[in-house]
Amino acid sequence: MVMASSDPPILIIGAGVLGLSTAWHLTERGARVLVIDRERIADGASCGNAGLICFGHPPLTRPGVSIQGLKWMFDKRSPLYIKPRLDGELLRWMWSFHRHCNKRHFDRCMDVLCALGGLSAKCFDEMFDATSIDCDWRREGWDDVCMFESTLDHAEAEAAHLEPFGYRAKRIDGETLRAESQAWKPGIAGAIRYEDSATMNPGAFTAGLARELVARGVELRSGCTVADFLRDGDGVTGVRLDTGEEIAAPHTVLTAGVWSDALARSLNLRIPMQPARGYHRDLGGLAHVPRLGCVLNETFIAVTPFHDTLRLAGTLEIAGFNAPWLKDRLSHLTDACGRYLEGVDTAEVTSEWAGYRPCTPDGLPAIGGVSSHPGLFVATGHAMMGMTLGPGSGKLLAEEILGERPSYASPMLSPLRF
Known about the structure:
Layout: E1 10-13, H1 17-28, E2 33-36, E3 52-53, H2 65-72, E4 80-82, H3 88-100, H4 103-130, E5 142-146, H5 149-159, E6 169-173, H6 174-180, E7 190-194, E8 198-199, H7 202-215, E9 219-221, E10 226-232, E11 235-241, E12 246-248, E13 252-254, H8 260-265, E14 274-284, E15 293-296, E16 301-306, E17 309-318, H9 327-337, E18 348-359, E19 366-369, E20 376-380, H10 386-401
Parallel strand pairs: 1-2, 1-13, 2-9, 4-17, 5-15, 13-20
Antiparallel strand pairs: 3-8, 5-7, 6-7, 10-11, 11-12, 14-17, 14-18, 15-16, 16-17, 19-20
């Protein structure tokens, strides 16, 4: 379907990687698009991503994680910190999360996430072939680096889960890692190298994609806070901003990250998510950096080199909105990485960031049209995988909006499943 030039544009709420990717695929199909955001364009949580593009990454709902999380939740420096508080929404989310942390659900999630990851990989290739986006894209894989032989053995067993889906991984010893880069300290056991994935500067990617969209005629507007949806019966026909301005649209796409749930609830649509805050710290002036992006297995911290920066990112903190940053979690990024990497503890800190990841209790995003509210489409709940799965998710939305045959479909992604 190609829209006439006189038709109002398709409206996208949220200018992160999900919103911009959806706009890209719609524009490539000849549709007119308007993207609005309450913040500066390409300046939200997508820019705070670690920069590891991990196709086939498992969901948060891994078997046993909820039990491990109970041990972590009172430690402010742990990979998962949950601020103790009486909050009915949080308790319901935690119980649902716990019920989904089982092998049967994990295997079903992997079917979905691997398919969506493969679609995203193709979309990234198409985007880079068609544009001049400079984001230090490296399609050379990433390393799951282990300090101990026991964790390396476990990481190798985890990697075997991806083999049936066509993803490649191989075991590398510590000497090979150090031969590739002098950044690694002695004593590291080795790594599992996931060869099909990539790394990039996420802020440069979203900014570059925004520029490409403008060049293709997409209108991007910042400073737009949605107050309510316009409706015709149960159908959604646009939005009303907090300024009173009304924006009519034939299709309205909700890609507002963790804030999507509050907006959707005005329509009695529930997409339960917790705002899981992630942190990153960028370092400069290092003499040596790892050759590839990596995760430090025992700490769950991601380390990504791009341009002249080394990004340390990780941890999830569930403390509600507007809680103050925990400086301990930023300093922990440096302290933990210092066990693996030379020079990290004395490097220059060039920037720090904290932002919210939209985490659903079942570990899967919500992508697709909302049949109870014709005209409304949703893509949210990607947790830490928004950058990896954004291009593929945007393609699925664009196909559904324009009535095309979907590249992939699963009821496990339905926004109505909750």
